[in-house]
Amino acid sequence: MAAIEMGVDLSTLIDRVASGNEEQIIAAAREHLQQGEAPDVLLGRIAMIAAHGDADGHIVTTLAAAAMLARYIQRIPHPLESEAAVHERALPLFAQALLLAAPAVRLGRTAQPQYPQPFYPSGLPEGKTMNEMMHQAVYNNDAVLAERLLLGLYGTGADYRTMQVRAYEGIATTFQNAGHPLIFAVRGFQALDAVEWGDRAPNIIHWLSPHLPLRPDSDEPAWVKTVRTFAEDPAHSLESIRTRLGAPKDENALPLRALVLSNADTAQVCQGVYDALIKGGASRKAVGSVIALAAADLIHMVGDDDRDLFVRAAHGLLFSAAIRLVFQQVQDVEVLTLLFTSAAYVNALYKDIAGQERATQPKSAPTAHRVAGGGLIGISQLEALLAQLKEHDLAAALTSIRRYQAARQDERAIFGTIAMAASSSDATADQGHTLQIVQAASEEFLAWPATLASTNIEGLLQVALRAAAYGKPHDLVARL
After folding, report:
1. Model confidence, pTM
2. Are 449 and 418 in contact (CB under 8 A)?
3. pLDDT at 361
């Protein structure tokens, strides 16, 4: 399927997007979807162009989120009486992402990127490794060297996971700009997944590299320096995981949920992560998932009437969800220190937000169990869910979801429906964070470890519902 979409002529669509004319963008988007083209691949191709005009980073990140959410929309059962193309249901999501991307596409389509000379592993100074060189680039604020190193790995034909792990490990114990460097790295590589990497990796490497180095003005928080000191202590080595033979004991990760959302200091939080991994024998994925669930709990401390604080709190989930995805992509022990950083960041957010007067319980907390409208057929429940989200009736929406789940149907369709509702939110008003939050919550919910199946993770689902229901609406897209 991807190969077909990679051959589609996007010149007219690119011209329309670059024009910034909303109605023309939507018309062009509809035309492509009516022809049966997959929106996830099309959005990935747009991201490769937008990367050369997106200095901020949020546009490519949102395009990646939209591409992944479009895949969930494809899982929604198709009404028998409908004659619309399967992909047309993704039109609001596709259009919303294109509207956000317009400025970057306008710049990117004419850009002539100047890639630096690759730094190949064969050129390493004696005794140096690519890891050490990446650390040098990150800690010396050398974006050009970071790009040269990643291009060098790409140029050798190395497995793309090698590029990923070098980027991730290089910033594992740094923290700046609310964790966006790591978020950008994970989601940028995810955009490449939508177009199957190939010769397109330099687009994302060039876009990502300026975000990786630790800038002198980054004002790193004190807690990340504690994380760095903790991780560098030989007493906290994670090397033993390489030779672990026993089955993971994932239940030993669960105490982290309460520890992260407490007044424990950063060293105590890091020790809790270390104990869960080494002494408790929990898997890296379980630890990452539990931290993400704690991040979702934090979001529910914020009311629905303060969207800015909601989005700020949600960065803990965006960061922890990205890190949990790292362990789905790569297995290298070097990136495990990201778990220290993830737990410490959510803990720092908790201490900050819990002390604010604005932090109140959401008025919309969907705890009711009343019967929702719609029949027992899956598509009826999902149609009811979409209508309830548009009406901000989250209690009814949650009941519809529970009824859908009771029939043991594909849960990806739930998040496809939530994504359709979230598509009405104006991405330009919040830098695409609504779509990013829905993506992060959906990934964490769907990837929750089977070994922890008895844990209630409905909080992740509620985050997605709240994000979708209370974004600032885009009037034109909302009418689609």
Report:
1. 0.94
2. no
3. 58
Residue 364 — very low, low, confident or very high, per pLDDT cuts 50/70/90?
low
C-alpha to C-alpha distance for 191 and 332, rounded to whole angstroms: 22
pLDDT value for 335: 95
- Domain residue ranges in the chain: 2-108, 121-211, 222-354, 378-478
What is the spatial distance between Cα 314 and Cα 190, in angstroms, rounded to a whole number? Answer: 20
Tell me the C-alpha distance between 89 and 452, whole Å: 34
pLDDT: is 366 or 205 the higher one? Answer: 205
Are 137 and 146 a contacting pair, CB within 8 Å? yes
Residue 3: per-residue pLDDT: 54
Query: Both tokens of residue 173?
Result: 């114990």
3-state secondary structure the chain: CHHHHHCCCCHHHHHHHHHCCHHHHHHHHHHHHHCCCCHHHHHHHHHHHHHHHCCCCHHHHHHHHHHHHHHHHCCCCCCCCCCCCHHHHHHHHHHHHHHHHHHHHHHHCCCCCCCCCCCCHHHCCCCCCHHHHHHHHHHCCCHHHHHHHHHHHHHCCCCHHHHHHHHHHHCCCCCCHHHHHHHHHHHHHHHHHHCCCHHHHHHHHHHHHHHCCCCCCCCCCHHHHHHHHHHHCHHHCCHHHHHCCCCCCHHHHCCHHHHHCCCCCHHHHHHHHHHHHHHCCCCHHHHHHHHHHHHHHHHCCCCCCCHHHHHHHHHHHHHHHHHHHHHHHCCCHHHHHHHHHHHHHHHHHHHHHHCCCCCCCCCCCCCCCCCCCCCCCHHHHHHHHHHHHHCCCHHHHHHHHHHHHHCCCCCHHHHHHHHHHHCCECCCCCCCHHHHHHHHHHHHHHCCCHHHCCCCCHHHHHHHHHHHHCCCECHHHHCC
List beta partners, residue 425: 473
Contact 52, 111 (CB under 8 A): yes
